[in-house]
Specification:
101 residues; elongated
């Protein structure tokens, strides 16, 4: 940042990229342009290390998260197993009853 010597002029922020002496266009900006932001080696290195750190997170394999033992030995016909589980249940919305004729 450049500061005025007499204190009357506001501080002028310079671009954060090393070697660029252009002022930024807004007070909240860090770079003078999108191009400077895209080619800043410090920013690229920081993004690279962050991506590597996030890529190393351990993920549990699906086999440890979900057990498929509920089907037992009848893996040949899972629809039949579902039909057996739903046997005796009626397809009537909750709170309503089927009229017996």
């Amino acid at each position: 940042m450049r500061h005025a010597t007499d204190g009357r002029l506001p501080a002028v922020r310079l671009c954060a990229r090393a070697g660029c002496d252009q002022p930024v266009k807004k007070r909240t900006n860090k770079y003078c342009s999108v191009r400077c932001c895209a080619i800043d080696p410090e920013r690229l290195e920081r993004l690279r290390t962050q991506a590597q750190r996030n890529g190393r997170r351990t993920v549990l394999p699906l086999a440890r998260q979900l057990s498929l033992e509920i089907w037992g030995t009848s893996l040949a016909n899972p629809e039949a197993e579902i039909a057996l589980l739903g046997e005796g249940r009626e397809d009537v919305p909750r709170g309503m009853s089927r009229l017996v004729v």
